[in-house]
Write a structure and sequence with these properties.
Pfam family, one: Sacchrp_dh_NADP
CATH topology of the largest domain: Dihydrodipicolinate Reductase, domain 2
Protein name: NAD(P)H-binding protein
Number of domains: 2
Shape: globular
InterPro entries: NAD(P)-bd_dom_sf, Sacchrp_dh_NADP-bd
Structural class: alpha/beta
Organism: Nocardioides humilatus
Domain Saccharopine dehydrogenase NADP binding: 10-105
Distance between the termini: 35 Å
Number of strands: 16
Helix content: 40-55%
Length: 371
């Protein structure tokens, strides 16, 4: 681990993409000087010049050999090259094998599962930490869940975390990620273990500011992150808010598409069609659009009986702005030596609850009672 007097390089992969550009600006605004990494030399050089003459590297984020020539042991690597199931594996592999700390902006459950289960042990063996889904999906849920669990104590064996957004625009990368996710198996933390379950299997209601809102279950990093920090947990589920008809429709769609997901040639054909129909890297909501977005995250800690023992609610602004800010905060904290472990880590395990609470507050996400 680097110490606080020896900050390490921060490498930003996918710097010229929508989330990458926002993250580069957030890093510079916090006083960092990241190395911007992208395939297109002209575009990345122009961005580096605009941000004050930053160092650049030209590499294909899907090419292991390209990345091996750029990444060094002890570096802090941020990957924003979604959709991650299509483009993301090379970066996490190189980070784990080289011994570089790693953050990404994925919201894709199967990808983040591979970070924890496949690459986490490799990184641990090389004294490196991997923090997948270190953005709006799924840092807020880990923080809200931890706050609820702290209130409830060890009597809480179950946790439900739900995300609700208002006025939210979606980037091309997000749309491509969603399309790809519909063709992948889901998972959840059930009866003390990660188990393969269908996304959309649960549709629940949550109290959001006195209103009862509907959400549908999805795979998330909370399933890995929170049981590691709170071993008494037996069940964890994460949810995305949606109108009731859409939530039920998603559940029906994932049920009906089960044969497609489980038959290799059919799945590959469907994936190829989705990739042609939904392109990534097509831009995203403007600053004006993002300024009007609001998010609420609700976590309910439950007893084995199902009784809700404690609730924590977080409020914040635009998901893309939060993702850029929290990635910048996390990478800079790691570069300064503030990580608390190695291997695949959730946000609480990586930084501790108080440090994470402060970092999220600086990125505009606070508990409702403090808003």
């Amino acid at each position: 681990m680097p110490d606080s007097t020896d900050p390490r390089r921060i490498l930003l992969f996918g710097a010229t993409g929508y989330t990458g550009d926002l993250t580069a600006r957030a890093l510079v605004a916090r006083g960092a000087q990241p190395v911007l990494v992208a395939r297109n030399r002209e575009r990345v050089t122009a961005l580096a010049a605009e941000l004050g003459g930053l160092e650049v590297a030209v590499a294909d984020a899907t090419d292991v050999r390209d990345l091996q020539a750029v990444v060094e042991k002890g570096d802090v690597l941020i990957s924003t090259v979604g959709p991650f199931l299509r483009y993301g594996e090379a970066a996490v592999r190189v980070a784990a094998e080289k011994g570089a700390h790693y953050f990404d902006s994925t919201g894709e459950g199967p990808f983040l599962r591979s970070v924890f289960e496949r690459w986490g042990p490799v990184a641990a063996g090389n004294d490196a930490a991997l923090m997948s889904a270190f953005g709006f999906d799924f840092v807020p849920g880990s923080l809200a869940g931890a706050l609820a669990l702290e209130k409830a104590g060890t009597a809480a064996t179950g946790l439900d975390v739900a995300y609700f957004v208002k006025g939210f625009g979606t980037s091309g990368g997000t749309k491509a990620s969603i399309a790809g996710m519909m063709l992948e198996e889901g998972f959840a933390y059930v009866d003390g273990a990660i188990r393969q379950v269908r996304a959309g299997r649960r549709v629940e209601t949550f109290d959001v500011g006195g209103r009862s809102l509907t959400a549908v279950s999805v795979p998330g990093s909370e399933h890995f992150a929170l049981p590691a920090a709170y071993p008494h947990l037996r069940d964890v589920d994460s949810f995305l808010g949606a109108p009731p008809a859409i939530a039920r429709g998603m559940g029906a769609t994932t049920l009906l598409s089960t044969p497609v997901r489980r038959i290799g040639p059919t799945k590959k054909a469907a994936q190829a069609l989705a990739a042609r129909m939904v392109k990534g890297s097509t831009g995203g909501p403007s600053a004006e659009k993002r300024a009007g977005a609001r998010v609420t995250i609700v976590a309910n800690a439950r007893a084995a009986s199902g009784e809700v023992l404690a609730t924590a609610t977080l409020n914040g602004g635009d998901p893309y702005d939060f993702t850029a800010d929290i990635l910048a905060w996390g990478a800079m904290s790691a570069a300064e030596g503030h990580l608390q472990g190695v291997g695949g880590l959730g946000p609480v395990g990586a930084f501790g609850l108080q440090q994470l609470t402060d970092g999220c507050a600086a990125a505009g996400l606070v508990e409702a009672s403090e808003a």
